[in-house]
C-alpha cells in the first residue's frame, strides 16, 4: 500500500512516502510557522523521490495533534481533501507517538505555551493514557515520581536539552499503531481546548 | 479545443466555507456555502480560532457537495482559484491548503484571487461588466471605492480609516442590543424610524476615504445622554439616524469619486450591498447619471461565496496569474498589484 505520512503538528514538518513498512522518501525539517508554505513542495518532492504519481496514493497517515492549532489543521486539510476526491483511506496517530517511536515508557511533552505542555506517556508505540495538558510543575513531579520513564520532546521547558527520538522509527511505529478514520467529515484535530474557551 | 473554461473556486476568508464550480466566468454550475453565522452569533461576532475550527469541519462536506452538484469531474477543471486574502489568517489557511492539495493531486494551475476582486466580479453573474468601472465595495471587512480602468486592473480611490461599514453596523447594533449581525437588524428597524436624532457629519483627511468610528461613538454618547436624562430611547429612530448617516457618507464619497474618474459603470459589491436602503438610495442617486450603468448584485452573490472567486479567478486565469505550491494565505493583501 502506498502511504503518505504527514506531521505538521509541531515545529517540524515531516513528510514521508512509505510502502510495505519501508520508507522510500523522507523530509524532516524545522519549519516553525512555515509548514503551510513548505508542505506541498515537500509532498511533491517525496513523491518524485519515491517515483510515485499523485494518483497512485492509497492512504494518508497523519498526526491529529496535539500541537499548534494552525499546524495540526495543515495535515488534516490535505487528508480531508484527498479523501473527498479519491478512494484514499485516512489513518491518524498522535504527535506524541511520532516523537516516542517504539521506545518503552516515554513521556512526550510538546510546548503548549503559557508554561503548559501537551503531554502523554507512550509505551512501545501506544499511548498509555489520553494526551492532555500538564503544567511544567506537574511534568517535573512526574519526572521525580517515575524515574524509570524517559522524557522526550520540548525538554528545554524543564531545563534540559530538547530530545527527539529516531524519526524513521517514529514514522513506522506510528503507522503500525495508527487508527483508521471511518468518517472523514467528522475528523477533527486533537485540540485539547474547547471552543467555549474562546468565549471570553 | 473548446474555449470553455471551468474553474473550481475555494473561499474561506472569514466565516463561510465555500466552494464553487464556474463555467466561462459567469455560469454557476455549483455554489456551496456553509455559513458559520449561527455559531458566531453565540459569541456576538466572528471568533477567529472558532472560525478556523469550523472550516476544517466543513471542508470535505462542502467539497463533495460542490463537485456532485456541478455535474463535472475534477479532471475537467482548468484551474483552481482560491481566496489568498485579505481575511482571517487561520481561516484563509484552510482554503489555500485545500486548493494546493487539489492542484497537486490533479496537476492543475493555481490561481490566487483577492477577496475584493471576487466581490466586484460577482456582478459578472448579473450583468456584462463594462470598463472603466467604479466599484463600491461594502462589507463586514471592507469599505472601498475601487476604480477599474480595464479588466482585472484595480486602483483603490478610497478606503476606510477605521472600521469597515459592516463592523460599524455590528458595533452599533451591540450598543443598541439588537444582536449579531447588526446590518439586517438595523436596516429592518430603521424602516419604522424617523428623523428624531441628529448624528454628526463624518470628517476624513482624504476626500474619498471613509470613517465610521466617530459615528459609532456618537451613537454611544447619544444612548448615554438619553439614559442620563431618564428618557426612553427610540431605537427605531436611532437606527434610522445611524443608517442615514452611514449611507450619507457612503453615497457622498461615491459621488465625489464620480467627479474624479470617468466610468461607464458603477457596481455595488459586498455583504452590506444587501442593505435595502443602500440599494434604494444608490439607485436614486444614479438616476442623475444617465450615461453610467448601475449594477446591483442579487442577494445570493452579495455575501461571501466561492462563485464570485470563480468569476474573478477565471479572468485572473486567462490573464496568466498563477501561484505555486509555496504560496500562502495573506491576512493583509494589496489589491493594487
Ligand atoms: Zn467579503
Molecular structure report:
The complex is a heterodimer of chains A (200) and B (337). By secondary structure, chain A is α/β, with parallel strands linked by helices. Chain A is built from five helices and eleven strands; from the N terminus they run E-E-E-H-E-H-E-H-E-E-E-E-H-E-H-E. Chain A has helices at 35-50, 69-85, 95-100, 136-145, 167-177; strands spanning 2-7, 12-19, 22-30, 59-63, 89-93, 106-111, 116-123, 126-127, 132-135, 150-153, 179-180. In chain A, strands 3-2-1-4-5-11 form a six-stranded mixed beta sheet, with helices on both faces. In chain A, strands 6, 7, 8, 9 and 10 form a five-stranded mixed beta sheet that branches. The longest helix of chain A is centred in the middle third of the chain and has 17 residues, at 69-85. Chain B folds into two domains: 6-121 and 301-318, Nucleotidyltransferase, domain 5, CATH 3.30.420.40; 130-296, Nucleotidyltransferase, domain 5, CATH 3.30.420. In chain B, 42% of the residues lie in helices and 18% in strands. Chain B is built from ten helices and ten strands. Chain B has helices at residues 37-43, 48-70, 89-106, 115-121, 165-175, 182-190, 213-228, 235-260, 276-286, 307-318; strands at 6-11, 16-23, 27-35, 79-85, 110-114, 133-138, 143-148, 155-159, 265-269, 293-295. In chain B, a hairpin with a 6-residue loop joins strand 7 (143-148) and strand 8 (155-159). In chain B, helix 2 (48-70) runs parallel beside helix 3 (89-106). The two termini of chain B are 32 Å apart. The complex binds zinc ion.
Compute the number of helices of chain A.
5
- Which architecture of the largest domain in chain B would the CATH scheme give at its second level? 2-Layer Sandwich
Helix amount of chain A: 25-40%
How does the overall form of chain A come out from the CA principal axes? globular
* Mean pLDDT figure of chain B: 94
- List the ligand species: zinc ion
Q: What low-confidence regions of chain B span 5 or more consecutive residues with pLDDT below 50?
A: none
Distance, first to last CA of chain A: 46 Å
Strand content of chain B: 15-25%
The CATH superfamily of the largest domain in chain B is known as ATPase, nucleotide binding domain
Q: What would you report as the Rg of chain B, rounded to the nearest angstrom?
A: 20 Å
> Overall 3D geometry of chain B?
globular
Evaluate the radius of gyration of chain A: 16 Å
- Assembly category: heterodimer
> Whole-number average pLDDT of chain A?
94
- Strand-residue proportion of chain A: 25-35%
